[in-house]
Amino acid sequence: MSIVVWDWIWGGHINRDAVSESMAKASPPPQPMHPYYPLGVAIPNYEANTATVPTLILSLGGMLASVMLLMSTVALRVNPTLTKSSLAVICWFVLCYFVVNHATLASSQNLFAQLWKEYTLSDSRYLTSDPFMLSVETITVFTEGPLAFACAASIVVDSHLRHPLQIIMCMAHLYGVALYYATSLVEMHFSGLSHSRPEFMYFWVYYVGFNLPWAIIPAFLLFDSVKTLRRKLRSLDAIQAGLAGFQAHTALNSAKATSETKKGQ
Known about the structure:
Elements: H1 2-11, H2 16-26, H3 53-78, H4 84-95, H5 111-119, H6 131-156, H7 162-191, H8 200-209, H9 213-264
Helix pairs in contact: 3-4, 3-5, 4-6, 6-7, 7-9
């Protein structure tokens, strides 16, 4: 910049191109308006969280504990014979239901919005109206959400639909988690574009760790449902085989009795 001014003093004119080029070199790059990756991604009307991370964690823990306590109380009132494992599965399916309002999340300051904005430091696609995330959340709201409540209700009333519904729900969870990880990691591999901040907390704890329960628990429940249905089908086959043998034995005895009656006549 000083060279251009010196040239103007001695030359009596301003070289506009040189001034523009010099100012461009001297000006620092614009600072991002938010902490999300990739840096500079458009997040309209973003407002930083006002609550600290410990406050959000305590609030989340209290909320989850209240939901679990309420659902356990209601479930035991309806069916006092429920086991602890059944109560745990009921609470799991109830907590699987959530609604995300992507259009106003960035500017919202309620508890759920601030919790979600903290998590999205590991995946900014929730704040940028990413087509994949919108599609997944729409499916979650209109299908997986009601299905999760149906699974919980079927366990409470000991319905025969429990395991068929549980298998469908678990497959949906596993498929969704696989797509969630795959779309982000494939994009990172081929384009070098990361939606997560690089710090250990955000990538390994938030992105990887917080989503693993939706792979591990559904896999366990899926295995349990398949094992239960297999055992029940084997029992049914044994009952049907026994019934068929009894009917054959009865028919044989009836034929013998009829034959002996005819001989006696």
